[in-house]
Amino acid sequence: MKLIVQKFGGTSVATEENRLKAIEHISKAVQDGYKVVVVVSAMGRSGAPYATDTLLSLVNDHYISAREKDLLMSCGEVISSIIFSNLLKSKSISSEALTGGQAGFLTSDMFTNAKIIDMKVDRLRFLLRQLDVVVVAGFQGQTDTGEITTLGRGGSDTSAAALGAALQAEWIDIFTDVEGVMTADPRIVNDARPLSVLTYQEICNLAYQGAKVIHPRAVEIAMNAKIPLHIRSTMSNDLGTLITSIKKANYGQDIQERPVTGITYVKNVTQIRVQAKKDDYDLHSKVFKSMADKQISVDLINISPRGVIYTVPEEVTETATQTLKELGYEPIVLPGCAKVSAVGAGMAGVPGVASKIVTTLTQAGIQILQSADSHNTIWVLVKQNDMIEAVNTLHRAFELEKQGSVDRIDHTK
Amino acid sequence: MKLIVQKFGGTSVATEENRLKAIEHISKAVQDGYKVVVVVSAMGRSGAPYATDTLLSLVNDHYISAREKDLLMSCGEVISSIIFSNLLKSKSISSEALTGGQAGFLTSDMFTNAKIIDMKVDRLRFLLRQLDVVVVAGFQGQTDTGEITTLGRGGSDTSAAALGAALQAEWIDIFTDVEGVMTADPRIVNDARPLSVLTYQEICNLAYQGAKVIHPRAVEIAMNAKIPLHIRSTMSNDLGTLITSIKKANYGQDIQERPVTGITYVKNVTQIRVQAKKDDYDLHSKVFKSMADKQISVDLINISPRGVIYTVPEEVTETATQTLKELGYEPIVLPGCAKVSAVGAGMAGVPGVASKIVTTLTQAGIQILQSADSHNTIWVLVKQNDMIEAVNTLHRAFELEKQGSVDRIDHTK
């Protein structure tokens, strides 16, 4: 059975016009001989009657149980799935809508952030033998006792990836309101352009570092099952960005021609510097335990015998500072920072990438407050006022506005 | 465990004001030491975003499967149940919302009109040991393969009755927008008044004959389980109408003092008269088979060797006439009729009730086109123009505007 998964997000299902565009994509796949599993989000953003936020606004968050919250939210996707299925049938495409549970998502009972335990797709396979399309309500599953759960952030992406993996789909289309994964946020970089191919690892890092195009959890599931992903726009016929393995992406000898794939940023970060007192042997464990106790997530940790530097989200600055003072420290606190990241699977083992970043930023008069790196990402912390210039400077330095060699690959093959 | 069931219909859950009134009733029961199973309908009538009709308006009825229709409609009651549960908790009443399936409604897979096969209420009992209230989404159930079903017309009443029976509730409150069961429709009879007690059989007959206060299916379930029902208004503290067995209603020797309990009507009826041809031995079977083949429901059937007289709903007049002509008959067709019924458990074996009806109507100049009777209902067919006068005339003739002896019973005991 030739089979693909197509996921349509909130804006793609929000209006009749967008839904009809979505139906065209599904119809095209059916004409090409594919069985299509369609995964849908709830309809639209805040304000629309069946949007997730609107449903949640019907209740007082203080009193609702996580279990009831999931049950309430699940209605949004169920309603979407039925509207989609109905529209498909009106265009002579045979279809049936299923809830997450009916489609086979067996999850833990960790409400609002349930984990997929197993995919029981026998029924889905059975339906696909008879129908062109099965529409599945995204973002949701069911426990073995019949509780309705939701999968947490990026849930419908995760649904699509899990279905693609369980059904061994040829690929998964993630339809969204952008043309694909961009080299940088086009709102702040004029020259940003869509990338035609990326590795799973690159998209994960871009996503973790601020690009909101797909949830990393979904990418990991697709990566483990070796299913390619397309990130594409509902409103166009372009194939968008292909996400696949390094090998399949055919980087080969060209990989070093593209050490950096994209530049991302995370705003509203506070840098905290704690200096060690005399004989302060357990400084690091004390500091990080106190942060964990307050549920503060820390990042960009630089440890040295003289102390520790790290970052926290700006909104917890006050709590973090107070906590450290209670431990007897006088932290040096610098709010108003931003993390800028250069991501690229090709940078591993390529000398000079970090040096180029430092030199470029310094020459542009941008102060680097801190830095860190992994095999495919380099982070620098800058003042938020410098952020836009830093992103643009790095985008130009790595010539990301130009079509690279790997972008010439025809990824429909 | 002292336990009651309280059902709140569409208008009772439609506005915040009405919901708060409903919460007061639940709160009162909890204060009186009862565990309360609350059954809710979807919120409000057409136009409200989560009303059943509005949900159905999102799709094209021509393409939706019955299975998808049920899944879509079920969201309306689920959303209601969570809003109710949330409101209860905000008033310090512990509560949790369950879908029909989670509450134990195991049904057939006859979508849009599913039958209850079994009530699996272990989980509900378990929750009731820990909580004051469990709110159950009415009108819905689940098959053994996890399909969501709805219970058809009067579904939330049926849900309440089935829960009352399965949990052996002390009684079931059916909250509605009227004060109780009336002696006649107050929109056409000025002197109509609420009845304080009725038998199960009487309310069933009233309901079948046009009174829309509760669905007969719900009454039958309560009757078989011997659970009393109260039909009452959300907006008042009156106990409304008690529905119970003849014995419990304490009619005793007074029963013959109330041969007639209420007068109802059904509008838009067509009378059809078919005359037998020579040697037309199978006239009756031919006629009724042809009506059944066209899915036309027939009523008030009077059979004689010379032919047959019966009624059909006015909207199928044309189809019925055409069908009979194809059989070679020339039916005499009279549209614009109305069925007026006098219902009363006390009329069985009481002579003169039929004669009083005939005499009264004749004296008032109302022509009786046809009549029929069972042990507790007498029907007459009149011209629709005469209907309002016929109902008022009979209401006066049986002195229904006066408080009867059985109405003095204190049914809180």
From TrEMBL, chains A, B:
Pathway connected to this protein: Amino-acid biosynthesis; L-threonine biosynthesis; L-threonine from L-aspartate: step 1/5; Amino-acid biosynthesis; L-methionine biosynthesis via de novo pathway; L-homoserine from L-aspartate: step 1/3; Amino-acid biosynthesis; L-lysine biosynthesis via DAP pathway; (S)-tetrahydrodipicolinate from L-aspartate: step 1/4
Top-level enzyme category: transferase
Catalyses which reaction(s): L-aspartate + ATP = 4-phospho-L-aspartate + ADP
Domain of life: Bacteria
Stretch forming the signal peptide: none
Gene3D superfamilies named in the record: Acetylglutamate kinase-like (3.40.1160.10), VC0802-like (3.30.2130.10)
Keywords, comma-separated and alphabetical: Amino-acid biosynthesis, ATP-binding, Diaminopimelate biosynthesis, Kinase, Lysine biosynthesis, Nucleotide-binding, Transferase
Keyword Transferase found: yes
Enzyme Commission number: 2.7.2.4
One function term, GO molecular function aspect: aspartate kinase activity
Stretches of the chain forming a coiled coil according to its record: none
Annotated PROSITE patterns: ACT, ASPARTOKINASE
Pfam families, A to Z: AA_kinase, ACT_7
Domain ACT: 342-413
Annotated function: Catalyzes the phosphorylation of the beta-carboxyl group of aspartic acid with ATP to yield 4-phospho-L-aspartate, which is involved in the branched biosynthetic pathway leading to the biosynthesis of amino acids threonine, isoleucine and methionine.
Record-stated family: Belongs to the aspartokinase family.
Name of the featured protein: Aspartokinase
Organism whose genome encodes this protein: Terrilactibacillus laevilacticus
